[in-house]
Amino acid sequence: MGTIGEAIDANETFWVGCSDPRCRHLAKLDLAALARRLGRDHGIMHDDVAHLFRCQKCAEAGRPRGKVGLTRIPDYAASIRQAREMRRD
Q1: Taking the model in full, what pTM does it have?
Q2: Cα–Cα distance measured from residue 71 to residue 86, given in angstroms and rounded to the nearest whole number
Q3: What is each CA distance from 59 to 33, 37, 71, 76, 78, in whole angstroms?
Q4: CA nearest to 27, candidates 78, 69, 85
Q5: Residue 3: phi, psi to the nearest 5?
Q6: Measured between alpha carbons, how far is residue 10 from residues 63, 75, 80 in Å?
Q7: Closest to 16 measured CA to CA, from 50, 65, 62, 57
Q8: What are the residue boundaries of the structural domains of the chain, listed by start?
Q9: DSSP labels for the chain?
Q10: How many Å apart are CA 59 and CA 85, to the nearest integer?
Q11: What is the spatial order of strands in the sheet that 26-28 belongs to?
């Protein structure tokens, strides 16, 4: 997956996670909202979008802006269905 639109079409889930060891807050990324803001053709890889996010909990605690990580979770159910369909053919 290279773009936000491809990730949406593949029913993938993305999580943004705070890298501060005192926090480690996770938030599910709203891909539809991100597509409205940046466009479906915008890249979805870490370097494309991580700089756009800041941990809200750290901001509320007055901690400096730290790095966030991006985790991609594929649609495993679709992968299993496809594998089963391939075995039937």
Answers
A1: 0.79
A2: 28
A3: 22, 22, 21, 34, 37
A4: 69
A5: -125, 165
A6: 36, 7, 14
A7: 50
A8: 4-88
A9: --BHHHHHHTT-EEEEEE--TTT--EEE--HHHHHHHH-TTSB-SHHHHGGG---HHHHHTTPPP--EEEEEE--HHHHHHHHHHHHH-
A10: 47
A11: 26-28, 13-18, 68-73
| Side chain identity, residue 60 | E
The pLDDT value recorded for residue 1 is 64
Nearest of 59, 73, 49, 55 to residue 17 by alpha carbon: 55
The tens digit of pLDDT for each residue in 39-89 reads: 999 999 999 999 999 998 999 999 988 889 999 999 887 777 777 878 876
